[in-house]
Design goal:
ten-stranded antiparallel beta sheet, 531 residues, 3 domains, alpha+beta, 19 helices
């Protein structure tokens, strides 16, 4: 039994190991759109903020900004905002030890500090839903502003308007600086504008970064002031390329590097052009005039975030009045932390202006609604080449190919979509193939031998009834009539006898069929009748 079971078990194992389940990957290219915050996106924001609305903005823009600040800690530290948009990490400053041969820096898929992201709001991406793919990989070109601040200074006994006030004294256009404004605007927008002249490049006013001032009143006891935290920070622009990977519906920016396509100057930003409205919105949102009541207390949402980015910016009355020292003294925050948090604050405000409808979801899959195919780098040149308008006309609100119903300008990219199908594949294990072949051959031979023995030993199947005919049979030898004989002795006694089913003639001359020795029994004949 053991010898039969062993080949059977081995053959069964060999059969199981001949095939295995695996995932068959198929890849194809799928077009996507994402929010464009390059020159074309800024022109579109300028058009609806300044040209169309005389510099005003919807109150809901303020609410989007506050919604970004009021997200839970999990959303602030995770790779997606609470609306499901992919957040963009900040490019590392000086550490190049993690840089690969292509200039990419690897980033974590989440659980990092909020100030390690460029904004609290992510990039809306159109075309991802419904792909039903195991993996989607693509890159996007984007940018964000970076703030560099010295140590925040504490000025005692100065009592500004309660809340935070953010201003840019050398941004924007004035009657005396029209040429300077236009030149910096051209530097910010890039091609098809020409580069700065040699004389302009030597002039610091044309080339150096602008300065943004942060002022926050330090409150004590809920209603009184003991001074102001103040910092004058330079603002620059980071032009980056981001690699985004989606595993099922879990998307994250996993790599980032400086843009190899966008070569605009880093010292020109949206705040040179139109974004003073963003500073006004952040300031007014946090000041007493915007609260609508003089009996409110505590720091604003923006100040609470600058003071501690890892907590939800909420303040309770009991906690507030029980603290004897200043509640939000931003001068206690290190320069690096304040700079990073201020950058996040400004980028969140910019995004609320430039992409106010980018968080509603349910975007149309008709990609043509988001403008022509382009990257943020060549968006302005694309509009210019496809229209008969001059660059000045485009700046003043002429957007060929962009209708009034567009929700935001979206750049284009191609994603590599990997889909998986479970299939059976042969296993490249020759040992198991050999074991299966040997086991099958052995079992076949055993079966063949069994068939041969079956036909060669058919007599034992009728030997028992034949043996019964030998008991007390007078036509058998005396040895067969000995009684009792056990089975083994009877086999031995009959081993050499030849027996026949035939007939004998009785005394009354009647042929009778009997079972007996061949010599004593005549063969049967068809011509006779037997009794």
């Amino acid at each position: 039994m053991f010898y039969l079971l062993a080949p059977t078990a081995l053959g069964g194992q060999g059969s199981l190991r001949l095939m295995h389940r695996s995932n068959s990957n198929t890849k194809d290219i799928h077009g996507l759109r994402y929010w464009d915050n390059g020159p074309l996106g800024n022109l579109y924001a300028y058009n609806w903020v300044w040209t169309s609305n005389d510099g005003s903005y919807a109150l809901s823009t303020r609410d989007i900004y506050l919604a970004g600040l009021m997200q839970g800690v999990k959303a602030k530290t995770g790779p997606l905002d609470q609306f499901g948009n992919v957040k963009i990490p900040r490019l590392p400053d000086a550490n190049t030890s993690d840089e690969d041969s292509d200039g990419w820096f690897s980033t974590a898929r989440g659980n990092i500090r909020p100030e390690e992201y460029s904004s609290l709001l992510g990039i809306p991406i159109i075309g991802l839903s419904g792909l039903d793919a195991a993996k989607v990989e693509f890159t996007i070109e984007t940018s964000y502003v970076d703030v560099s601040c010295p140590k925040v200074e504490f000025i005692a006994n100065e009592q500004p308007t309660r809340g935070i006030n953010i201003t840019c004294l050398d941004c924007g256009r004035s009657a005396s600086s029209s040429d300077l404004y236009n030149t910096r605007l051209e530097g910010f927008l890039g091609p098809p504008f020409p580069e700065l002249t040699a004389a302009q490049k030597l002039n610091a006013s044309y080339t150096q970064p602008r300065t943004i001032q942060f002022s926050s009143a330090n409150t004590i006891g809920g209603h009184s002031f003991n001074g102001t935290s103040q910092a004058a920070c330079t603002i620059t622009q980071r032009l980056v390329e981001v690699f985004i990977e989606c595993l099922k519906d879990d998307c994250a920016a996993t790599k980032i590097r400086p843009s190899k396509a966008d070569h605009r100057g880093a010292n020109f930003t949206s705040f040179d052009f139109w974004a003073s409205a963003v500073l006004d919105m952040i300031s007014q949102t946090s000041q007493d005039e915007a609260r609508g009541s003089q009996v409110t207390f505590g720091a604003s949402t923006s100040e609470l975030f600058l003071n501690n980015s890892n907590a939800v910016p909420l303040q309770q009355a009991q906690t507030f009045f029980s603290i004897g020292n200043t509640v939000t003294n931003l001068s206690t925050v290190s320069a690096d932390l304040f700079s990073a948090r201020a950058s996040v604050l400004l980028n969140t405000g910019l995004q609320a202006f430039m992409c106010p409808t980018g968080f509603a979801g349910n975007f149309s899959t008709n990609l043509a609604l988001y403008g022509p195919d382009h990257t943020p780098t060549d968006g302005l040149a694309t509009i210019f080449n496809e229209s008969s308008l001059s660059v000045v006309d485009i700046i003043n609100g002429g957007f060929a190919g962009l209708g009034d119903t567009i929700i935001f300008v979206a750049a284009s990219t191609n994603a590599t979509v990997t889909r998986q199908t479970e299939v059976y594949q042969p296993t490249n294990r020759y040992v198991w193939v050999a074991i299966l072949a040997i086991s099958a051959t052995f079992l076949f031979l055993m079966g063949l031998i069994g068939l041969c023995l079956r036909f060669a030993t058919i007599a034992p199947n009728i030997f028992d009834p034949v043996m019964g005919l030998t008991y007390g049979n007078k036509y058998m030898t005396s040895a067969s009539q000995q009684s009792p004989l056990d089975a083994e002795d009877r086999f031995k006694a009959l081993a050499n006898e030849r027996i026949r089913l035939g007939f004998v003639e009785s005394n009354d001359m009647v042929a009778k069929v009997v079972f007996g020795e061949e010599a004593r029994v005549s063969p049967l004949s068809k011509k006779m009748k037997y009794y």
